[in-house]
Amino acid sequence: MTITSDTKESLNDLKEKYHKVVKLIKDESKNDPPNEPFLSKYAAKEILLSMKASIESLLKNQELDNSERKKLLAMLGTVHIFLGTIYIEIEDSLTAEKHLSKCLEVINDFKEEHEYISITLNAYNQFGILWFKNEPEKGKVYLSKSMELYEKNKNELEPPKCLDDFFELESECVESEESWKRFEKICTATYYYLAQIYGSLRDALKSAVYCHITLKRQLVYNEFEFIDWSLNAATLSQFFAEQKGFKQARHHLSAASYILDMYKKELDKIEVHDEMYEYKMEEFQHRSADVARCWAQYGSILLSKSKERLLAETEKDEPNYLPSSTDLADIENSDSTVSKDDLSNLYFQTLNLQDYEKQVTDGYVLTLSEAKAVFLNAQNWLIKSQEYYTLENLASDFIDINLSHSQLYLDLLFFDDNADNQAKYQKRRIDLMETVLAKINPLFYLSHCRKIWYEVGNAYINLLDIKLDKQRESNARPTANSLLKINNIITKGIRYFTVFLESFESKPNQIKDYLMVYARSQFYIGVLFGKFITLDKNKKLENTESSLSAYRQVIEFCEKYPDAKEQIMVEFGVCKEMVELLPAKICILKSEIANKKN
Fold it and tell me: Is there a domain that residue 432 lies in?
């Protein structure tokens, strides 16, 4: 470009403003006050608008040659991309679309020339972001164009210029290797945005594939933050586990732990333990606890899906009608457009994860010993997570972890046929939850207390069934002590379900959020009153009347809330039957009591 003194001054001014814009958006915006979250970006917008005016003024020069005009148009296109990005973030989609469209308009004559394609790719990506929520198909079109353009240019000898280059003198442009890295970073962003698009299109599996590719590319090009990468990999593992892809789920969890361990080594190298170091250590401990919870959840899901598989097999003539593979590439998924090849490549080949993966199986559990191994591994991770999530500091998370621990015992119980062991698992569940209840105030943790009251009530019902089954199988006459224990279990179960129901007396509007469990709590109270063992006719009459009252309350509740009836059809049928049968039983008991008095 032929540079006059005035032109050089204008270009230097544009360069300085561009660097100020980048600093405002990437750095200073992180420290914007909560009440002005876009303060820095509004400041950047004003600078960009002045840059736009300056470039448009320079473009009026009739003596510009083709290369000079292209450079200025590239700068103008870049300014429009930044403006479009800011307007997307402040949710002004109409203005954002106007700037992105203007970008493609000003570079239209050379938008697919190799040197300038970074502008086009960035514009297409921003269009993908703009449309991914409201018009995802439209967004997908732009992102697909971005991928096609990337594929056409990725094998060229020289890298395309990045956006920064258009505001630098030729001598200030970055090295070729760094330029390629920046170019690949644009493509990584495209994969990330495609993941969001397919999420909006409800193709969750394809979205997950693109999430994986994003993570993989971040590793390859060393463009990642340790903590964020680990959390994203661990979160993705939970999705794969729910899809029964335990091979991929374990691999991603292992990768998350591997990267966290890498980060810990970096922290250990820091000699000055200042405030920033303490912040990083706290963040590391926090997110390590989160990944530990993901490992525990993996174990719980594996036990649960193994149970589902075994139960399903017992209902079919063919003993192995369900796939035994836990590799997503072997599992058919008609709800997704993802290819088998994509599912076969969900691995991080650059990471050595064997030591992490061997700690727990990725196959379905068939025996008690296998189930115990998974249980113990998951339990250890839960205990590790509570090193950070304590009752004193983060009570809600601590409570949720205890509930997860309780669920683990329930998952294990299915694989153990020994009644005594089953009773122990239920007792341990009860101990876990009652310990928490003793330490928290329902005024502050009402929703958590409701979960626990209901779960403990269920645990007592399950424990009661185990005790009664064992008693029926025994030829020995039950002792007074054993009968007392059974009645104590019943009393405690009723107490917890009652406390759960009473928690809504002052907040009746909240019942709609708990229809099924509310109705079932009433139902279980009716069941439990009918289980009391007593020779006292008066007590038996009292219990039967209480049982009938509870069943009637279920029916009344379901008439008031029809949705509840749909959710407890089996229990509702039992209630209808008991409401017909129990009045006769009550009459007989009353008659027997009256005769005894006479």
Answer: no
Q: How far is 231 from 239, CA to CA, in rounded Å? A: 13
Looking at residue 190, which CATH number applies to its domain? 1.25.40
d(CA 87, CA 99): 9
Residue 597: what pLDDT? 72
Is residue 583 a part of any domain in this protein?
yes
Q: Tokens for 550, please give them.
A: 């509870």
- Separation between Cα atoms, residue 263 and residue 593, nearest integer Å: 76
Placement of tokens 């933050």 in the chain: 225
Alpha-carbon distance of 82 to 86, in angstroms, equals 6
> Any residues with CB less than 8 A from the CB of 130 and at least 6 apart, and which?
84, 88, 93, 96, 97, 100, 139
Contacts of 276 (CB under 8 A, 6+ apart): none
Q: How many domains does the chain have?
A: 2
**Domain end (from 173, 202, 231):** 202
The amino acid occupying position 133 is K
The rounded distance, in Å, linking the Cα atoms of 322 and 330 is 12
Q: What are 501's two structure tokens?
A: 């129901």
Tell me which residues of the chain have a pLDDT lower than 50: 1, 171, 319-321
Strands (E) across 119-241 are located at none
Amino acid at 100: L
Helix and strand tally (H, E) in the chain?
22, 0
Q: Does residue 383 fall inside a structural domain? A: no
Does residue 444 lie within any of the structural domains?
no
**Residue numbers of the domain that contains 100:** 1-202
Question: pLDDT tens across 90-126, in order?
Answer: 999 999 999 999 999 999 999 999 999 999 999 999 9
Q: Which candidate, 244, 376, 238, places its Cα nearest to that of 312?
A: 244
Domain end position, chosen among 176, 202, 228: 202
Q: Is the four-CA dihedral 348, 354, 355, 357 of positive or negative sign?
A: positive
The whole model's pTM is what?
A: 0.89
